[in-house]
Every structure is written in C-alpha cells, then in structure tokens.
Write a structure and sequence with these properties.
With about 170 residues, the chain is of the alpha/beta class. Helices cover about 30% and strands about 20% of the residues. It is built from six helices and nine strands; from the N terminus they run E-H-E-E-H-H-E-H-E-E-E-E-E-H-H. The strands form two sheets. Strands 1, 2, 3, 4, 5 and 9 form a six-stranded parallel sheet that branches. Helix 1 (about 20-30) crosses helix 6 (about 155-170). The relative contact order is 0.17. Bound molecules: flavin mononucleotide.
Length: about 170
C-alpha cells in the first residue's frame, strides 16, 4: 500500500525582508519536505488543517507584539484542530534594541498553536544571545528558532542549518 504523503507548509509574510530570507534558507535545508509556501498576509487559516507539519515564522514588532497580519489571524488560528500535527516556529528579533521583548513573536504564536492541540517542536538553547526578557522562553529554552539579523547576522546560516537538522530528527 502506498505510504501516505506527508504534507508540510512554510508560512510567513512574503512582503518581509528578513523573515523571507530566513524562510528561503529553511526551505533549502528542508528540501525533502517539499514545503508549500503560504503567505501569512491574506492567510485562510482553515487551509492549514490539511497539513501534517506547519513551519511558521514572524518578526517581533511594536515592542513585543506580532506583526498586525498575524495578530488578525489569532481568533481563526485558535479555532483550528491540529491534533496530531507538528508546528515549528522561527522568530526574528533584535536583542540589542529590544532586550525586554526579544523575539516575543514566537512565544505568542506558540500560545496560539498550543490551543489547537498541535505538538510544538524545535525548541532551541538561549545560549549565545544576550537579552533581559522574552515571551518566547519556556523551560529555559526558546520555543523555536531565534534569529537576530541586526546583531548576529553571521550566525543565521549555522543556526538555521542546525535547527533544520533538529526538526528532521524530531519528525522521524
Ligand atoms: C518599530 C519596531 C519595533 C520592534 N520591536 C521589536 C521587539 O519588541 N522585539 C524584538 O526582538 N525586535 C523588535 N524589532 C526588530 C525587528 O523584529 C527586526 O528589525 C526584524 O529584523 C524585522 O524583520 P522583517 O524585515 O522580516 O520584518 C522592532 C523593529 C521595529 C522597527
């Protein structure tokens, strides 16, 4: 009998610069997942239920908030039933300019996706970052991948590579 095809989606705003750059690298590193790219701006949340794996990314804006287009999706996302599905989150922030709200976006998204019963994977160490507070830290780890283009641009590629390897392990 044919093995059921695993469906995976990569969700981010196509209009962003840094988040899009990170998404492209993630896609390359997860080539075998054949990710379907979905624009977070104009997202129809209901379409996400057809996927087994969701990888979602967002920068933090407005001192610890999600970009508006994500914020507007929260009620619809919270209504989804993603039981048995995996969600991995990547966030973009600036730890020097916003040390009290560093990369809050993925903590906020983790809360939203937790209410869908999805399993959140891809937590990473906070080692190597300097900040005061973040809504994205749970049990001393970031709930997903954290990138800082303004201050640690040179670490992006290795962080993305390692995270993608980790996701592949967690998904097998
Ligand atoms: C007005 C403004 C508010 C921001 N607020 C935060 C914040 O609270 N926490 C954080 O980590 N980064 C914050 N940032 C930094 C952005 O997340 C960062 O510049 C990011 O690289 C933008 O990514 P994008 O180009 O994909 O939108 C803020 C940036 C601006 C301009």
């Amino acid at each position: 009998m044919a093995k059921k095809e695993i469906k995976a989606a990569l969700i981010y705003s196509f209009a962003t610069k840094k988040t899009s750059t990170a998404a492209k690298l993630i896609k390359e590193n997860l080539n075998e997942l054949n990710l379907t790219e979905i624009d977070a701006e104009g997202l129809n949340a209901g379409e996400l239920e057809q996927y087994d794996i969701l990888i979602a990314g967002a920068a933090t804006w407005f001192d610890g908030e999600l970009p508006t287009f994500w914020d507007e999706q929260i009620p619809a996302l919270e209504d989804l039933n993603l039981k048995g599905k995996h969600v991995a989150l990547f966030g973009i922030g600036n730890q020097v300019e916003y040390p009290e709200h560093f990369g809050d976006s993925i903590g906020l998204l983790a809360d939203v996706f937790a209410s869908t019963s999805a399993k959140i994977i891809g937590a990473t160490s906070t080692e190597g970052y300097t900040f005061e507070d973040s809504k994205s830290v749970r049990n001393n780890q970031f709930v997903g991948l954290m990138l800082d283009f303004e201050n640690q641009h040179n670490l992006n590629e290795s962080r993305i590579e390692n995270w993608c390897k980790q996701l592949k392990k967690q998904l097998t």
